[in-house]
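Below is how a single chain appears once it has passed through the pipeline. First comes the sequence as given, then the structure the pipeline wrote out for it. We keep one example in the README because the format questions we get most often are answered faster by looking than by reading.
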Amino acid sequence: MYNSAMHKRYETKLIKNKSISFGKSNDVLIQSMCTYKTSDIENVIKQINLAAKHGANLMRISVLDEADAEAIKEIKSKTKIPLVADIHFDYKLALLSMSNGVDKIRINPGNLKNKNELISIIKKAKETDTIIRIGVNTGSIEIKNFNQEAEELVQQALNYISFFEDQHFNKIVVSLKSSNPIVTKKANELFAVKSDYPLHIGVTESGYDEIGIIKSVAGLAPLLIEDIGNTIRISLTKDPIKEIETCKRLLHELNLYKNLPTIISCPTCGRCKVTNIKQISKKVYKYCLKHKKYITVAVMGCIVNGIGEGKNADIGIAGADKKFIIFKKGKQIKISNENDVLNDLFKEIDTF
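Resulting structure:
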């Protein structure tokens, strides 16, 4: 993870156990969720390990029944990143998940029948050194005034925190979510003023593909810019890998995740006198990613904005009548024809 030398994020409480820590530092941890039923052990293990390879820091698994809870022990033995058990309604499944070694549980206290069940969960969490995420969203509480939806989410979270602290338990992470990005943003901003517990941020049920990505980024980018958020999930109607890649890219653009290339590419217009700018951009990005060249590369279609717009890039190309100018730090170093430009650019990238 990347700690920007130019910007120090504000510190929340440090919440940690033997396997994971949240808050206090600059790191924003990336989370996704398995799409398989947890008792499908083989596929869950494969998916978690693949997610870890792509950059997930922790994975959430659903616990719908005893078979799911019992599967946790074997899954833990064959995966390396921390696991979060997703619990709804049945507190006994939370107890069993913790007994089987899960690192963190996520509960909506509003979905439990009574305080005694919640006290049992807290007691077990103390015994097993398990972190609890208190999840509050518009689906788990009764909203009395939808004009004050964010305020009601925050107040409910603070009420839960007070109850947990009365039980002498503070290994808490909080999430306040809505499918409305504006409500999500406002709720987290309000909470950050009132409490210094770490926040898991996300827009719940955001949607698929570009719809879900745009909705999530609309709600989460302003929070991250304001230093709010310690873990993140971009919930998409898609496989976990897409969620993880989208999180990484968002964090990278905000100087919170270093290990990705940056591509500056023009939208193309009538001034463009070369072809395949989109394809070149994609190939350059894949090449940099494969060879771990975490630099900024500009791929521009003309010289009008080419070197000027790309002057802050480490290296770049600008189209010029079936040819490309190759430049470094805004200074021209070579002219290449369309057929050779990729190979010439890759050679420059290799030696950068």
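The CA atoms of residues 183 and 332 lie 48 Å apart.

See the next section for the split statistics.
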